[in-house]
Design the sequence.
């Protein structure tokens, strides 16, 4: 994702995007990113992909008009990628928070200075960028009480933890941890329920669809429906794996797992 | 195809061994973390640090082994903080416990209440985590089972029926049969790659750990199942 955003930096900001959320998500992933440049990159990327796919479409005996909805879908997908990535990051951060609070609580209970207690963040890979920002802000001499406002993070819960830690409020941290654990339990239950539903769908897409396709490829001639070798290979090597990857990506977006 | 399967299985063996090792380590960490609150509470029952360590070590649980090792290192002359940092290493929670014990050792009894509180909260947190992990492992094993067994089995079943029907109904269809068989085999490998990638991302394990299970098993099931289905 970072590579795509960095690549988009070489594009001119021709297409303006008024979506503030996109700008915010891009900034979370890469500080210098611009939504106008990224939108231009998405458009150029989709155009290139469409042009490249034209000879393949003729090989597949598919009308060229079919390229248009696929191009639109690809454009929307690439445009949505930063938001999806930010959601994944937020999930990872939120799942690490109970353990982080637990660790901060024990440090504060042992009368450790709150700013030194914040060093505990180094043990959490999901909070790496936040940790780097805090270290930079402290070394620049920023006042400690401004840290929650200055640190850029997708998680509001993290900002609250930062605020409570700096104020050395152990009791409030503990209460917040209990609430977060309950919230995480609910999220985990919801994600398990979604996964069950998606699992049924996954079997349909990953097993039944290819199996029926192979049956059609073998028996279709009886009803005058023949598939070319290229169509068969395309379906099994590109189309079905693409469906599977999309479903699993969606599953990952909705999966909650508490980090250790 | 069978030579390829054999080759894949041979190459998968080290990864499979790694998977088993990882599974064992995970189980060991789980058992230590589960028994850590009791050991810590036993430690807190004494006001003397060394007696506390002896109390915890006498429990004969996986966590008490850590306390026993710490005592052993300390008796060999290692400073207590170093002995603790060498033995309490398996996971973040275990490291945290080691750090806390080091603080109790340095600050004396003033931090023993914190350690007690830590033990009680660790026990609660273990229960909560168990619930969350049960849901997550259900997803992990369903996906693994689905990609390694269910998908190749369903494809093999429908494919073998259609192959037989095509032989009777239209013998020309046999021309495309090798292409379809090869395509399905490639598809199963790609599915193993995709599912292993997602599983490894979700469960912080190595890609090969899952791939070494899903790829050979799914290919084996697809190529062998038709013999049993006839």
Sequence:
């Amino acid at each position: 994702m970072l590579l795509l955003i960095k690549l988009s930096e070489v594009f001119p900001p021709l297409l303006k995007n008024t979506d503030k959320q996109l700008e915010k998500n891009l900034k979370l992933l890469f500080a210098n990113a611009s939504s106008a440049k990224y939108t231009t990159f998405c458009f150029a990327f989709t155009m290139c992909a469409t042009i490249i796919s034209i000879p393949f479409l003729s090989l597949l005996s598919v009308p060229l008009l079919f390229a248009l909805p696929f191009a639109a879908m690809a454009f929307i997908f690439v445009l949505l990628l930063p938001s999806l990535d930010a959601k994944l990051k937020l999930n990872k951060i939120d799942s690490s928070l109970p353990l982080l609070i637990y660790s901060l609580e024990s440090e504060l209970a042992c009368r450790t200075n709150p700013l030194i207690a914040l060093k505990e963040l180094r043990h959490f890979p999901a909070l790496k960028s936040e940790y780097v920002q805090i270290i930079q802000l402290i070394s620049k001499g920023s006042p400690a009480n401004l840290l929650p406002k200055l640190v850029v993070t997708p998680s509001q819960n993290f900002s609250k933890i930062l605020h409570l830690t700096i104020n050395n409020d152990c009791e409030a941290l503990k209460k917040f941890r209990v609430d977060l654990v309950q919230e995480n339990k609910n999220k985990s239950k919801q994600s398990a329920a979604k996964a069950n539903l998606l699992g049924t769908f996954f079997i349909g897409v990953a097993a039944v669809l290819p199996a029926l396709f192979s049956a059609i490829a073998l028996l279709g001639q009886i009803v005058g429906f023949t598939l070319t070798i290229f169509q068969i290979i395309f379906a099994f090597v590109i189309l079905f794996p693409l469906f599977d990857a999309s479903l699993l990506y969606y599953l990952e977006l909705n999966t909650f797992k508490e980090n250790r | 195809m069978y030579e390829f399967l054999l080759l894949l299985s041979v190459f998968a063996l080290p990864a499979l061994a790694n998977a088993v090792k990882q599974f064992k380590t995970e189980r060991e960490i789980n058992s230590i973390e589960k028994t850590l609150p009791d050991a810590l509470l036993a430690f807190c029952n004494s006001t003397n640090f060394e007696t506390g360590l002896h109390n915890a070590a006498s429990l004969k649980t996986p966590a008490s082994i850590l306390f026993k090792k710490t005592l052993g290192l300390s008796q060999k002359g290692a400073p207590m903080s170093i002995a603790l940092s060498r033995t309490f290493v398996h996971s973040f929670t275990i490291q945290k416990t080691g750090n806390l014990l080091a603080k109790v050792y340095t600050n004396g009894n003033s931090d023993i209440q914190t350690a007690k509180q830590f033990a009680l909260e660790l026990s609660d947190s273990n229960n909560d985590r168990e619930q969350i992990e049960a849901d997550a492992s259900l997803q992990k094993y369903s996906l693994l089972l689905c990609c390694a067994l269910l998908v190749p089995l369903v494809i093999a079943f429908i494919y073998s029926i259609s192959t037989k029907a095509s032989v009777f109904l239209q013998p020309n269809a046999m021309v495309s049969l090798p292409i379809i068989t090869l395509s399905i085999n490639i598809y199963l490998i790609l599915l193993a790659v995709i599912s292993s990638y997602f599983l490894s991302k979700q469960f912080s394990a190595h890609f090969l750990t899952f791939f070494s299970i899903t790829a050979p098993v799914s290919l084996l099931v697809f190529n062998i199942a038709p013999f049993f289905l006839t």
Observations:
- The mean pLDDT of chain A is 83.
- Chain A is about 75% helix and 0% strand.
- The radius of gyration of chain A is 24 Å.
- Residues 92-183 of chain A form one domain.
